[in-house]
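so ive been stuck on this for like two days lol. basically i have the seq below and the ligand is magnesium ion, smiles is in there too. i just want the complex predicted, nothing fancy, no docking runs or whatever. if the output looks off dont worry ill sanity check it later, just need somthing to start from for the group meeting slides
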Amino acid sequence: MEENKINKKNNILLKVSNITKSYTEKKFLKKTVKNVLKDVSFSLEKGKCLGIIGESGSGKSTLGRILTGIENSDSGFVEFEGKNIHKKENKEIKNDISIVFQNYVSSVNPKFSIAEIISEPLIIETTMKKNEINEELKNLIKDVGLSEEFLERFPNELSGGQLQRVCIARAIATKPKFIMLDEAVSSLDVSTQVEILDLLQKLKKEYNLSYIFVTHDLLTITYICDSVIFFRNGKIEEEISDIKNLKNIKKDYSRKLIDAVIEF
Ligand SMILES: Nc1ncnc2c1ncn2[C@@H]1O[C@H](COP(=O)(O)OP(=O)(O)OP(=O)(O)O)[C@@H](O)[C@H]1O
Ligand SMILES: [Mg+2]
């Protein structure tokens, strides 16, 4: 039993403890404080995909920005392999973390070629030489299911699904350990969604990745995630640690989200 506990602890990649976040809004010269995240705690095991599902405005993207180090929380902390990601002395952790957003069009510079888009993190975060980067680009574009000729193209010459593949290639370029997927397939048609989810499954194995998949779509969660957190109004409403037990859900809110999908 004790051994099990230790093994589980060693297996934790990301630990989120008591995160709170509020924003101050100004309305007609009056300041109001909006509590967006309220004491959020959970952890992600190595090699797993954790889904976070919740209504629009419930704070999912805010949480995603905090646990990738893009934004600070008001209180609480996020540890990656035991190190606090918001501390300056741990800034190298950022190389182990990537993020893929819903809006692939605004995620890329339209004036950059696909080669320039994917090579950007390699230029910024590694000491690779130009010829090494060129070789790596060929591997990366193939790994996301596109041919080398795409490297010469520009974003407006690609379909949505192809451009999201490019964003994924950029996200895996520095060989991170963890990718935050924020509604990463929500803007795509259903068959392309499935293709991208299959690609993410494949890359998870090949690159030894762990994912957090933020979405408002339960089907996406059941397709790719090992566990799921139901998020409501900045708080964890319910957590299902094994997706196979989804039918054992207890809270009304989580049940409503599931029923909405089943009716559909
Ligand atoms: N930088 C900011 N300044 C002020 N308010 C913000 C900021 N970012 C987010 N918010 C507010 O925080 C709340 C949560 O927003 P967030 O984008 O995290 O929700 P979400 O769950 O990702 O929603 P969606 O499913 O629509 O993407 C919203 O009310 C939003 O207006
Ligand atoms: Mg969001």
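The pocket of magnesium ion (ligand 2) is lined by residues 60-61 (CB under 6 Å). The chain has a mean pLDDT of 91.
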